[in-house]
Design brief:
Elements (H helix, E strand, L loop, with lengths): L6 H19 L7 H5 L3 H18 L4 H20 L5 H15 L6
C-alpha cells in the first residue's frame, strides 16, 4: 500500500478492492481451461478497454458496458490511490467522458 495506513484502514481498503475484483471478474468468460489458468485481471482490463474504445469509435456502447466501465473506473481509483499508479485510471476516465459526451444533455 502507498504510505502509512492503520491496520484496520488497510484491511478495509484491501477488502473493498478484493470485493470489486470479484464482482468485475464475474463478467470474464474463458474459452478454455488453459486461458482460465493464465488469467490476469489487469490484462483483461486493458483488453476490455481496447474493445470498448473500438465500439465507441464504430457505434454506441450498450448500457451494460457503460455500467461495467463505471465500476472498473471505481476500482482503478482505489488501486491508483492506495496501491500503485495505473494508467488504467485515465483510460477508463476517457471512456466515461466519451460515452457521456454521446448522451443528450438534460438542457437540450
Amino acid at each position: 500500500m502507498n504510505g502509512s495506513v492503520a491496520l484496520e484502514d488497510g484491511l478495509e481498503i484491501v477488502s473493498a478492492v478484493k470485493e470489486k475484483v470479484d464482482l468485475l471478474s464475474q463478467k470474464v468468460k474463458f474459452a478454455s481451461e488453459k486461458e482460465e489458468n493464465s488469467y490476469n485481471f489487469s490484462n483483461f482490463l486493458y483488453s476490455y478497454c481496447k474493445r470498448a474504445e473500438s465500439i465507441i469509435k464504430n457505434g454506441k456502447l450498450p448500457p451494460s458496458d457503460k455500467e461495467y466501465i463505471s465500476k472498473i473506473f471505481e476500482y482503478t481509483k482505489l488501486v491508483d490511490r492506495h496501491f500503485e499508479k495505473t494508467d488504467l485510471l485515465t483510460k477508463f476516465a476517457a471512456l466515461i467522458q466519451n460515452f457521456q459526451a454521446e448522451e443528450p444533455s438534460e438542457n437540450s
